[in-house]
Fold this sequence. Notes:
Blueprint: H1 2-67, H2 70-78, H3 82-95, E1 101-105, E2 111-116, E3 119-121, H4 130-153, E4 165-172, E5 175-183, E6 200-206, H5 209-219, E7 222-227, E8 238-243, E9 249-256, H6 260-309, H7 319-335, E10 341-349, H8 351-358, H9 360-377, E11 382-388, E12 391-396, H10 401-414, E13 419-420, E14 425-426, E15 429-437, H11 444-460, E16 466-468, H12 471-493, E17 497-505, E18 510-521, E19 525-527, H13 529-538, H14 542-557, E20 564-568, H15 571-575, H16 579-590, E21 597-602, H17 603-606, H18 611-623, E22 626-632, H19 639-644, E23 649-652, H20 654-659, H21 664-679, E24 683-687, H22 692-701, E25 705-707, H23 717-725, H24 728-736
Parallel strand pairs: 15-16, 18-20, 20-21, 21-22, 22-23, 23-24, 24-25
Antiparallel strand pairs: 1-2, 1-6, 2-3, 4-5, 5-6, 7-9, 8-9, 10-12, 10-15, 11-12, 13-14, 17-18, 17-25, 18-19
Helix pairs in contact: 1-3, 1-6, 8-9, 14-16
The structure holds ligand C2E and magnesium ion (2 copies).
Residues 501, 515-517, 528-530, 533, 546, 549, 568-570, 600, 630-631, 654, 687-690, 708-709, 714 line the site of ligand C2E.
Amino acid sequence: MPKRFLKADFFWPLAILAVFTMAVLVALVLSLVHQFDSVSREREQAVVANGLTGITGEVAHRVVAQAVWDEAVRNLDNRFDPVWASENIGQFLSQTGGFDTSFVLDAKDRAIYAADGPGTVDAGAFAAFAPATAAIVESVRAQEAARALNTARRSAPGKIPGPIQASSIAKVEGRLYILSATLVQPDFGHARPKGPRAPIVVTGMLLGQPFLKMFGERFMLRDLHVHGDDSRSDKRQAHIPLRTHSGDYVATLDWQPQTPGRTMLDQIGGPVLIIVALLSLAALTLYRRASGMAQSLVASEARATHLAYFDPLTGLPNRARFQERLDHALDHLRRDHQATVAVHSIDLDRFKEINDLHGHQVGDQLIKLAARRLAAVCRSTDTFARFGADEFAIVQANATAAQAAALADRLIEAMTAPFYLETNRSFIGCSIGITMVTDGDVDPGEAIRQADMALTRARADGGSRFCFFEIEMDAAVKTRRSLEIDLREALAAGSLDMAYQPQVNHRGVMTGVEALVRWRHPVRGPISPAFFVPIAEECGLISELGLFTIARAFQDSRRWKGLKVAINVSAIQLRTPGFVTAVSTLVSRLRVDPRRFELEITEGLLVGDDPETHDTLKRLRDLGFSLALDDFGTGYSSLSYLKRFPISKIKIDRSFIASLGIDEEADAVVGAIIRLARALKLNVIAEGVETSDQRDRLAAAGCSEIQGYLFSKPVSAADIEALRAAPAFMRTARAAA
Ligand code: C2E
Ligand code: MG
Ligand code: MG
């Protein structure tokens, strides 16, 4: 989602901006190029226009040498010598000056001489030129008149006057000419004009290809040509209008102007395009890199937020998120005093066994499947969270106790169907503790703690059930806490003691004893190991407690020759690394024969067929210990591990014995267990035998050994000696029977 959000948000605006910027840049460059070229063209036009004026003047100036000359005054003015005119005007101007035509006009502006190229022609040829030359001839006459006036006023005699000339571009018979008119004047004053109006030499030079070629080369103009239609001018062409002396349009001079901007663009356009392309590529890469970084930032932020609030395995809210939602619900309680909030604490039954048995991968798979099933049962208003391992919790906002119970029922129901895991089919259940919160000021941590206490009760009651928190539970938990501390002290102070309960054979002969740990609390008095052993297991004291009882049993056993001693070993203790080593160290230190000892383990230890447990039990057996299965019938009672593990005895749980003679089924079960033990060549002992009837039924069923109050309660080590020594024991036992 953040990825799409980012693209939509930044990509298009950025792309549009980039394209727009590029377009503006290109337009700017093109406009600059255009402007550059226009300025250059205008300048070129100005230069060419000047140049043309210059060349026109220059062309006219070629006549000065022939017209402003004492000889010319003598031969054209004082008298007219056609031979002189032919040689010095017609031929000379054609050959040396490059003129196409030349005329000599007399004082009355009548043609007295005409030449076409070098050759003299009839003076009448001037008629065609007369209209086109009228203006320049008139200009020359005006200058002449003005000069005469000035000379009359102040000019010093003998001073050489400047030439009087006029020139123009004009069309004559459809052809363009540079026309000039030059007044015939003396140069050194050796000759004097005969009248006030001197003759005029008129010349015409065709503005044709040779001229254009020369002009073009001089000004480095390409494709120079003349046309007579001004409107036809191409905008990209440079052009200047050609005008007559009096300013009338005659024709247009066109050429291909220099285009420095375009040339520059042509030269640098390629590299610039490549640079722009590279820059765009770099920008795009940068953008992608940056947006990639931004995306990954957004993603990692989202991931971090998710991690902070959600459990990575199931995707469910985690404890922090749960706490937040609980705070929310409690907030609501503060405003609405009628409302109640249910907090459920959920634990999967038998999860640990499956996890231990099949490994973490299967365990994780189970958690995911279970979480999915439980979540499916919850409503959208419930917050279902995972706290860790197989612990889950629910905040059920605005729920009555009945609704909370209904939800718990649905959750338990959802867990009854089997789970199909990688390797097999597993049945697990769930236990739920619920607390109803009515007071918004309750600490959320306290609410969770109460639900946990109710959960402990639900599990203690056998699991696959739910239990509401009651205020007494709190007291029980507090008691448990203080007992933990006291037990630690008692162990450290060595104030625990051992009791031994006799085990007798079918003839009433004591064959062994079971070692049972005793704790007399300074305030609470005697506390049952059934209560404090699990506490020791939970708070990490079991190894210490276990080794203490084993050591004491080893020591006390020395007092009774020939008696087997049964020692209870907790599953958790047996699984602790180093247990076998610690026991074998005790064996050598206290110099006892392990063959005299029977370790009582429970079925739970064997479930899972864990190779390490196998190994531990095998090593214990190899040391010489025998193994008995305690409380048989209450757990899984599976035959398979009886064969697989080195068990030599089973101990029928006292709950079956208590029901003997009362519940027929108990008799049947006990009978079946004894037959099974026989079949498997296992010894069998019944515990908790309190009555002679129970003893007789067991004897009838073929149970070889019994243990129970019928013969003796657990007693001190010294009392065991006494019991053995007293011949009355047998009688007492019999009498009790
Ligand atoms: P358990 O191993 O099944 O021990 C037998 C329990 O039944 C003992 O309770 C014993 O006092 C009681 N009992 C014996 N005969 C009768 C009878 O005729 N009627 C009745 N109602 N009860 C009888 P205790 O000593 O309270 O021990 C309870 C459990 O605590 C034991 O059950 C055993 O699991 C555990 N335990 C006791 N001592 C130790 C120990 O040193 N280490 C470990 N790990 N566990 C111990
Ligand atoms: Mg036992
Ligand atoms: Mg037992």
